[in-house]
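During data preparation, a discrete fold description was generated, and the record follows.
___
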Amino acid sequence: MRLLEKQEPASCPSPAARELGDLSAGGNFVRLSWVVSGVGTGPPEHRRCRKSIREPAWWMLVAHWAPEASGAESQLVTATVKVMAAQSWVLGRVKGVAGALRSAGETPAGPGLGLLLAGLGAGGSSGGGGCSLGLETKWQPSCESHVWPLESWLSTWPRQDSQGASRALVTAPQETVPFGDAVLSTWDTCIGSEVCEELWTPHSPHVDMGLDGVEIFTNASGSHHVLRKAHARVDLVTMATTKNGGIYLLANQKGCDGDRLYYDGCALIAMNGSIFAQGSQFSLDDVEVLTATLDLEDIRSYRAEISSRNLAASRVSPYPRVKVDFALSCHEDLLEPVSEPIEWKYHSPAEEISLGPACWLWDFLRRSRQAGFFLPLSGGVDSAATACLVYSMCHQVCEAVKRGNLEVLADVRTIVNQLSYTPQDPRELCGRVLTTCYMASENSSQETCDRARELAQQIGSHHIGLHIDPVVKALVGLFSLVTGASPRFAVHGGSDRENLALQNVQARVRMVIAYLFAQLSLWSRGAPGGLLVLGSANVDESLLGYLTKYDCSSADINPIGGISKTDLRAFVQLCVERFQLPALQSILAAPATAELEPLAHGRVSQTDEEDMGMTYAELSVYGRLRKVAKTGPYSMFCKLLDMWRDTCSPRQVADKVKCFFSKYSMNRHKMTTLTPAYHAESYSPDDNRFDLRPFLYNTRWPWQFRCIENQVLQLEGRQRQELDGVD
């Protein structure tokens, strides 16, 4: 039996995320093709959006349809329909789905492939043959509730027993159709469906389905990218088929969903704990097809060897069967060579960063209809990493065009406003779509200016160099004119308030200049369109609030806002080798600095880690403990006592935790204005989307800090007693 998996993008304007299954038994093999989504039904400019717009809450309906067929050809269509919970609907609206399924049976494009569902409100049709086999309700709480907080809207669909499938009225001539839990039974096998999150639940539907005799499991998934997540996704599928046997088809959506998430593909075909086909994780291609030829008898022999499974199977509550009057295989399949298992090839975290955010940037650029990006390039690691992501995007665009991707070619021609243009050199394309700008002040060093210019030359961006001192002096002069007071930097005898205000005005001026040039720089060159402003604040700095509100961290989008400094440095090092960018070496070697305070003898006198009072490595630890482990000050102190027992005393750990939480709570208000960032880490500090904790805290943490202090005193007293005992 041959299994063929086809993965396509979802349509943005439609509330339906579709899954089509086209099983055709003809010749010497059975072909099963999985289409994650079909062609969009909205305006032409939206039809190739790569992930459907998500509503605040939704259910999933899996609809099964068997069109009439003649001769040896039989088809089975399975559609996974996303339904807005906000819509007011009743079971009678299932008529629209049944009608759309019925009309899909005789489309010129082929059985099933013409299925166009615009949601449950789709118009019905009484024409065409075939019948509706059943409608399954699918909804599960999200794998990451901080990404899809739907539990307050919906409750999970309960499992029905064998007699519990309800029936709903549909269009004539068919009066009823099963509505609830069911599996499809052909002459030679049995097929069950899961949807996305159901694979991740403690007791997934495939467990009972497999014990009840289901041999093929399908999953139309909407799983977004997070660094190092592919391992978990593959392990779940292989473990599911290792324990239970069977064939598992996983098709995941691809592309940007219109906000911070990116869906990274990774379609696969697995059987009995082994992988037989692997799809790409990051790609600009809208359609991807996987094929594998597998023997159903291997499933049965595998399951027969697991005696404990057979005992469990005798106790399982059976699923309702919807019988389909054809087979997926035939006797001639004996001549069809079977596929061999393969080893899954994983990307390193640095490779994931080079590919995922770059694909996300491309989707944002082509869908926003802008002419490129504008990036304030400071000569530091963060802005350099952002520039490298755009350069990586240009590489992927050129590669896609070389492979013959006409849709990418059409998009890039629209972006550069040249219908005859064909990108061949990433550096040349980068010069068209990326404008970088070094905004110097009297506090900037020549070294950072040189590093920014050299990197811009090597990636080919259109680079601008300017000085912001006239604007800064005008603003400070205006303040002095109105108040009669002249603020000074700390090195010149000013207070901390004066020092901070003079730093912030420089940072905020850069944001204003960035948007001015993003809107008018192409106009000044006689080119149409505007530019998207890119931010370059990493997740660690955002977590601590080590940024100026409404400075260059305020932008249209931020491709590195969910990535830690440690991972960014690894990515930049990868770019040195992969893209041959030697300018990055000096950027990696230089200390991180904001360059907002006066230089000391022409040298930088300010470093980020000194200003923060902690290292970036420590910040990454704090972030995961605060967000993922849900720790407060005292819980974090207890965990770090063990983690850092070889390097820090209890007093030092206590001081570090107090320092972090004091600054975290003091700057928490800045998280309400963060630029939308690529979601790459589970501890993103963005309270608007991922972190719903308050942004107004008591910065003194009196009760928690008192508990920490009491614990430190007890530990220090115990250590003194132990030392006295040794003496």
About this structure: The chain is about 35% helix and 15% strand. The chain has three domains: 2-335, 347-467+513-590, 614-727. The two ends are 78 Å apart (CA to CA).
